[in-house]
Amino acid sequence: MWDFFWRRLTGLIVVMALVATLVFFLTRLAPGDPAALMLGDQASAADIAALRAVYGLDQPLLVQFGLWLKEILKGNLGQSIFLQRPVTQALLERAEPTFFLALFSVLIAALIGIPAGIVSAVWRGRLVDQIVSALAMLSANIPSFWLGLLFIQFFAVKWHLFPVAGYGDPGAPLLERLRHLVLPATVLGLVNSALITRFTRASMLDILSEDFIRTARSKGLAEGVVVWRHAFGNALIPVITVVGLTAALLVGGAIVTETVFGLPGIGNLVVSAVLRRDYPVIQGALIVVAAIYVLINLAVDLIYAWVDPRVRAQ
Amino acid sequence: MEILVKRRHLLAATGLAALSTVMSPLKAEAQTSANLAMIGEPQSLDPMASTADLVSLIMQHVYEPLYTFDAQWGVKPMLAADMPKMSADGKTYAIEIRKGVKLHNGRELDAEDVVASLKRWLEMTPRGKSLSKSITSLSAKGTHSIEIVLSDVQPALLAHLALPSGFAGIMAKESIATPLVEFIGTGPYKFRERKPDQYVVLVKFDGYAARSEAASGYAGKREAKIDELRFIPVPNANTRVEGILAGQYHFADQLPVEANKKVSGSGNASGVLTMPYGFPYFPTNTKQGPMMDLKIRQAFQMALNQEEILLAGFGDPKFFSLAAEHFPKGSPFFSDAGKDKYSKGDAAGAKKLLADAKYDGTPIRILNSKQYDFHHRMALVMAEQLKAAGFAVTLDVVDWATLVQRRADPAAWDIYITHSAFLPEPMLSPPQLGDGAPGWWKTPAKDAALAAFNAEPDAAKRGQLWGKVQQVVYDEVPYIRAGNFAALSGLSNQMKGYAPMPWPSFWNVSLSK
């Protein structure tokens, strides 16, 4: 098990080094100048050059890369050009809405997707299977921004049940802040439930056709016990994979949903930083998001090993 | 089973952590709070560190200038007691500061604060830097008066001091630092809190010393009638629309014009037009490429039908107006010089000019950005009009950050699409009237017209001289001004007393229950 863990951890370090290099150079390859954007129309070329020097943007690219890597290794993600604060602080300020949004969205997606997939597999070919499959197809193809606007129109504007956007007034307590996540989390939960439904259904269908299930049924076990204990337990691995990947994607920031609902999350931060060419924020945020993504994948791998002795044995 | 027990422990711990945060004491609520949906996050809260309108819009509630504009764009005193006493040669300004004005830290404003703030403004802002070349001295003369001595006449000095963009706001001298960490001004609101991408909160300043004159534009009496202003960044325009309809916002800035009917028909909010809010304009590259040729620039001007272009940009004539004049009737700078060259839409005439210029068919690159949707829509129609006149055209569609970088490179474009807020003084915008701005317009006719205009201290004579500058702009086509456009804002029915101006302000505005 430890061997497995260390192998994965070494892979993680290599992936992170590649991500850091790619993120830095891809960010800098895009045209645009943060200094010119900051100073506006009336700035002279000399003003822009002076501001570029303040942020070290006048240095050769490789020198900038070296300095940035040095700081990264010290745990310093740099200073935002636009927000005038450390990137780490900017990320921490936005971590809460993104974390809770990801958590609730994955919970909603799993709570809809797993039971729907099981029901669909158990009653394969029946009306309920067709309805579940059709709904899964529909939710997989609905754009999240459109569903978001529809939810806002009905649940916020028409029925005043939830706020339209934002993350609460200044000083709002946690419950009030979380109320602002109900609509976006439901939108993301619904959209992401489709994939979980389909994976659960497919995995359950495979398992339900196995010999050991037939044996269990022939022993006279109740159908509930067969499905829940023998089939679902063994069908879990692909489901864990897809739930893990969904969580990893959402922790990186649900960019479109955060924008539509005006949530001050990490996705919103990255989009704003790209538009402003705030290089330290783009680089810092992508490094952290990549690290979280890789760590969640590592956690998923470890869960495999935990739930399936065959993986441990390998 | 063991797994389940562990999961329960984890859930219980998470629940307890959440509960402890939920039970934390709530902050005291202000009596009245206005939620104001802005188009994004301000670049900074330092009004001298950025020329962005959003920064000025927010911080004009905290900082006040010596002079400001009234509803007719006349310059009026704000922190200055009166209009300045000028020497006969127009080079020395003696300015009295109002007495009894309190800063947000409780101390009384004095001439040292004003001098320190203006020196910072001259060092930091693009307009200040440009003006500083003409300033011989800036000094305090006693506790409540200052003196500005110029090396040459600067008729636009007071307009520069009044303009909210790249703002010459007066701050407490002890708070001055770069970057600013304390925001201590004299305005009717003081800074309380900023959470990037969530809100900037300003609260009523109880010690505010208001002027006695009736309110007009940004001038006259200012009163904080709402206890707390929350400027909330809402970059998605549809979300701003839905937020004002749902009653979550009391004011929503810069709504899409298509939303006007929906907002005004909702019964709980109305659409408010600010006209003129700004003007789209199209600089030409006079330094490199085909547009270096005056005849080709004139062909470009002759080919354009501004009505079609503005219609594409703004959809409904309610939201734009055709205007050959660069300043509206009533302004001292109103002139119809060059009117005969505006919005001709004459493809045949343009073709003839192109033939005279021996245009070789080199594609004209129109640099534009979809980040401002109306820019791109105008570019599409412009391209068709130019093609009809015999131009070869390519549309270079990029994001705004790329456009800002590329326009500084004379090899990268021929025409670009941009816009400016309406500004009451000619030398404030567009930057092509100055030196070195993208387009690099520099000719003897320009220099002569602007030198005469900028050397004339008499306001009435300046008006006539502006007509000559406007004529040179039409003759030499360094940029084409499309016309004027309006901004649409959403206003909750609860909000009373709001007067539309290009930088929305919320003093003298109240909220009904």
Notable characteristics:
heterodimer, A: 314 residues, mainly alpha, 78% helix, B: 513 residues, alpha+beta, ten-stranded mixed β-sheet, four-stranded antiparallel β-sheet, 29% helix, globular
Summarize this structure briefly.
The complex is a heterodimer of chains A (about 325) and B (about 525). Chain A is mostly helical. Chain A contains 15 helices and no strands.
Q: Radius of gyration of chain B from the CA trace?
A: 25 Å
Tell me the greatest interface: A-B, 52 and 60 residues
Broad structural category of chain B: alpha+beta
Task: Summarize the biggest pleated sheet of chain A.
Answer: none
Number of strands of chain B: 21
**Helix tally of chain B?**
14
Query: Which whole number gives the mean pLDDT of chain B?
Result: 91
Question: What would you call the shape of chain A?
Answer: globular
Summarize the biggest pleated sheet of chain B: 10 strands, mixed
The portion of residues assigned to helices of chain B is: 25-40%
What does this structure look like?
- The complex is a heterodimer of chains A (314) and B (513).
- In chain A, helix 5 runs antiparallel to helix 6.
- The model of chain A has no long low-confidence stretch (mean pLDDT 88).
- The N and C termini of chain A lie close together (9 Å).
- Chain A is an all-alpha fold and 314 residues long.
- Helix content of chain A is 78%, strand content 0%.
- In chain B, 29% of the residues lie in helices and 20% in strands.
- Chain B contains 14 helices and 21 strands.
- In chain B, strands 1, 8, 9, 10, 11, 12, 13, 17, 18 and 19 form a ten-stranded mixed β-sheet that branches. Chain B has a four-stranded antiparallel β-sheet with strand order 4-5-7-6, with helices on one face.
- In chain B, helix 9 runs antiparallel to helix 11.
- The longest helix of chain B is centred in the N-terminal third of the chain and has 21 residues.
- Chain B is globular, with a radius of gyration of 25 Å.
- Chain B starts with a helix and ends with a strand.
- The N terminus of chain B is likely disordered.
- At the A-B interface, helix 2, helix 3, helix 5, helix 7 and helix 13 of A face helix 1, helix 4, strand 10, helix 6 and helix 12 of B.
